[in-house]
Structure formats: structure tokens, C-alpha cells
Amino acid sequence: MLEPLKDGEYFHICLQKSYIPHKPMMRGDRFTVGDTHNPFFSFFENARSYKVNTPEGSEQVPAMRFLREINRGKIECPDLPKQALAIANHYNILARELIMEDARQQTAPKAPSRKNCMWVVDELGLAKYWQTKLSKRSYIVRLHLEGNFHKGDATLLMNESEPISETYEKAKRYWLGDTTDDPLPEILFTGVGVVIEDHVTDEEA
User: Fold this and answer.
1) In principle, which of 24, 124, 132, 136 could form an S-S bond with 205, CB 3.0–4.6 Å?
2) Which among 32, 69, 34, 71 is positioned nearest to 52, based on CA atoms?
3) pLDDT for 25-69, tens place per residue?
């Protein structure tokens, strides 16, 4: 089981993505987390679609229709394997997050929801590891946080095809704070915070 967390210093990775509406976090910024969907979950408010040229002009075609029309030979897609994987991954993550929220409500309803939380870690080394997995177009900030925390093992998150019963069992373990033999810790937070330091490096830690 993972130890309960307290108010204090944590690290967050600021991604430079087009779907993130917030201005870059800078030293001295104060913020509140938990009142609205976070950028990660809000991303799914934008239906995945593809621009397709037709005799009448161009149109945005929803992802599933895009694949159906390719299958029928009505749309050509030179990089179909890449696009099909991107679409599958999109809906795999959405399904995972909906299951995780359902499991949270059943298992740990007082824990921060993954829909409106801030993602943080409590070690700079771990933040830098996650940074390599997430995006090079990012930077790390040091925060002081006060509020509600949940520490989970990201290894338990669904990232492959599996029986739904197995997904729910792993989700339950995540919310109970169980860990695998090779855990990958992540922390969910809601509350208030302040940026102590932006663009943290090893030398500054």
C-alpha cells in the first residue's frame, strides 16, 4: 500500500500542447484545481476527425466514419496503420478513463477524480522520468500544494486489450493504493497551490 500524502512540495510537468488553454505556469502563480475538467480530460470534448477532399470540396469526417469509408474503398489513406493506431489509442484512453472514474466512485469516492485533478509526483527524478515518456516539449515546475491527494500506481492503468473484469479489478487496486511489483507512482491532486519554481533542472533541485 502507498503511504498517505500531506500538503507540501510536489512536481508537475507543463506540456506545451495546442489543447491546453492555460498560460505557462511561472514562479509565484497561484491556482485552484478541481472545479473544472483538466486539459487531459477536456481533450475528449473534441471529436476526433480527419480532413477529406471530396468532389464538392473538403470536409471533416469523424474518425469511425473515416475508417469505414477507407474499408469501403471510398477514401485513400497512405498511412492507414498509423492513423488506425491513433484512433484506437484515442478511444482506448477514453474507455480507460471512464472506467477509472466509475471505479473511483465505487471504491474511493473521496479521492480526487482523474477528470478534474492535477497530475503531480513527489520526486524530481520521477518527474524527469515521466517527462521523457510524455513529451520533450515540456518543462517541470516545483509546487507547494494544499488539499486532497491520491497516490496510485500507473502500471495498473489499462493500456492494452484485456477483459473488462481485469480492467475493473486493476482500477479498484489503483484506488485502494495497491502497488505492483514494479510500480510507477503518480499523484492526483485537487486543492490550492502556488508555483515555487519554474523550469526546474537537476542543478536547481
Assistant:
1) 124
2) 69
3) 999 999 999 999 898 888 888 889 999 987 777 899 999 999 999
